Amino acid sequence: MSPPPHNPRLEELAARRWRVAAVLTTATLVSYFGFILLVAFNKPLMGQQLTPGLSWGILLGALVIFISWALTGIYVRWANNHYDKALDELRR
Amino acid sequence: MNPQNVETSIGQPNTTAIVFFLAFVGLTLGITYWAARRTKTTSEFFTAGGGVSAVQNGFALAGDFMSAASFLGIAGLVALSGFDGLIYSVGWLVGWPVVTFLIAEPLRNLGKYTFADVVAYRLKQTPVRLAAAVGTLTVVSFYLIAQMVGAGNLIRMMFGLSYEAAVLIVGGVMILYVLFGGMIATTWVQIVKAVLLLAGASALALMVLARFSYNPLALFREAVAQYGPEVLAPGKLVSSPLEAVSLGLALMFGTAGLPHILMRFYTVPNAKAARGSVFYATGLIGYFYLVTFILGFGASVVLGRASITGVDKGGNMAAPLLAEAVGGTPFLGFISAVAFATILAVVAGLTLSGAAALSHDLWTHVVRRGQAPEHEQLRVARLASFGLGVLAIILGIVFKGQNVAFMVGLAFAIAASGNFPALLLSMAWRGFTTRGAVASMLTGSVSAVLLIFLSPTVQVEMLGRAALFPLKNPALVTMPLAFFVGWVVSLLKPEPEASDRFPEVRHRMHVGAEPGENVIAPH
Predict the structure, then answer these.
(1) How far apart are the first and last CA of chain B?
(2) Between residues B512 and B108, which one has the greater pLDDT?
(3) A33 near B248, Cβ under 8 Å?
(4) Is B97's CB within 8 Å of A72's CB?
(5) What is the ipTM of this complex?
(6) B229: which chain A residues are within 8 Å (Cβ-Cβ)?
(7) pLDDT of B368-405, one tens digit each?
(8) pLDDT for res B520
(9) Cβ <8 Å between A47 and B218
(10) Cα separation of B328 and B310, whole Å?
């Protein structure tokens, strides 16, 4: 294989994928470290119960797990619908 | 609700446990026999010929990741301290999105058997593969020690076998899987184990929740009634923010540098299946951690903390005790057999990834300069698997009685510092050089091991003297250091041959290999 040394469309697409990956990675980082820092700095809030039996800590912890999964879902949808289509056009 | 008495059949030979365990071993050895007849090439041995579907690989990834330590350990932690266990669970999960976004697809498109294939793609093979093998084997060794010692202790506690016998059985059965069935058998063992573990944990959680009209909040309220509102609040686990952030970094980016996880992306046919499989895996693992959280609370409410610590001070028997309390001895037997199966599957995956580094990176590319004939590669791969399996048994026996819980955290810190930075830089940065890659991988691995040795975990808790380095987990220092060293060393002496080939890497990384093309480009 010797791909063309300079392929602006592929470079554009590659840059777009890294941008999407960077945004989603940042979102994961923010939600996770947000949770950790709340645990570290605001223990009283995390222990407070919204309704008997459910504390903010449990709600937010479960939410971070759910958000992580949802973000992978968003990425997979984007990649299946947009990225793969653009790649197919490039391959032609 | 009164805590039940401590009477338990844990630790006595349990017929149901033995029957379930023998059934699992019989089934998986049958799979191994079937897989052995389909394992004729190196590619089949290491990647199941690339024929694993996204859903199958999702279950297999989950199987590789859900260890007995996370099942029993997190349930125990939650049972004894409540909310704090959730902090761990969240940390173990958040590495998976990172794997999805940054690693899975490029790895699938650029490599063949190991992550070193990707780093070495446009760099000089020998130094890069040597350094990557150091990182891989260090991570695999620490992870294996933790699993084998855990296996010996757990099985002794649950089945009443001697520690040595337990380690020998785990090591022996695992060697059979890997040696004869390669990746095909290992993948199916992971899938069977993941299904059993998820089903077992779900059934147990349902039986507990049945006592609380299927409302987890009613369970949490009962825990508050017994132990006070502190059970729903952060406790002692996160005392220093720096410590928490450092551990968080190791967990988050370590997953993206674990050799046995990375290797799984070569078993699927293409990048689309690779990304799909991480989505399934993330969902399964996230669900598993939430169920484990319920089990921990269930154990503390149904059994009472005193009965749990009465059997094992660390709380590791919380889930099996709970199984006995709500489902009787047969259900305890089932859960014990599932825990045993879990350990077996995890050590098989680890051993296979270590064998790939030894035979593919070190033998085929360093010793034979990429010129080893197929039958020789396969023979060396099997020899390496056998050797690593025996080493795992020896390490398990040598480290008997040692506190090795910190070694999993150490494996994550080394993976996050030694493997992940070089892997990411090789895929994303044109200016990365051979010297930069080698310097980054060695700095990351060596500094992580060194700082763990100087940390409170080893110095204070094991040697009883003052610690020279304040953090228990070093990733906050070592991961940025590995990125920095890789960057500076690459800038000091550019490597035009490497940067000239970057467009080829970029093309291959996104478009994938052409059909029938040699996977490792000639150098």
Answers:
(1) 70
(2) B108
(3) yes
(4) yes
(5) 0.94
(6) 47, 49, 55
(7) 998 889 899 999 999 999 999 999 999 999 998 877 77
(8) 47
(9) no
(10) 19
For A6, phi and psi rounded to 5 degrees?
-130, 110
Residue tagged 């990733």 (tokens): B475
Taking CA atoms, what residue in A is nearest to B270? A84
pLDDT tens digits for B436-471? 999 999 999 999 999 999 988 888 888 888 888 888
Higher pLDDT, B429 or B405: B429
Terminus-to-terminus CA distance in chain A, angstroms? 16
Q: What amino acid is encoded at B412 in this protein?
A: F
With residues binned 3-state (H G I as helix, E B as strand, rest as coil), the percentages for chain B, rounded to 5, are 80, 0, 20
- What's the rounded Cα separation, in Å, for the pair B84 and B231? 8
Give the 3-state secondary structure of residue A54. Answer: strand
Given a contact cutoff of 8 angstroms between Cβ atoms, the answer to whether B150 and B3 are in contact is no
Question: Is a pLDDT exceeding 70 seen at residue B7?
Answer: no
Tell me how far apart the alpha carbons of residues A17 and A20 are, in angstroms, rounded to a whole number.
Answer: 5
Question: Please, are residues B297 and B220 in contact by the beta-carbon 8 Å criterion?
Answer: yes
Task: Read off the DSSP letter of residue A55.
Answer: E
Distance from the Cα of B248 to chain A's closest Cα (Å) equals: 8
B78 pLDDT more than 90? yes
Length of chain A: 92
Residues 6+ apart with CB under 8 A from B77: B84, B85, B88, B296, B315
For the segment B106-128, the average pLDDT, to the nearest whole number, is 94
Residue A41: its chain B contacts at CB < 8 A?
241
Residue to test with chain A: of B78, B94, B227, B245, most A Cβ within 10 A: B94
**Residue B355, both tokens:** 């064998």
Q: Which residue of B has its CA nearest to A43?
A: B234
Alpha-carbon distance B386 to B391, whole Å? 9
Taking CA atoms, what residue in A is nearest to B515? A1
Kindly determine whether residue B252 and residue A29, on different chains, have CB atoms separated by under 8 Å. yes
**A-chain residues within 8 Å CB-CB of B230?**
47
Supply angle C-alpha B114, B194, B116, rounded to 5.
5
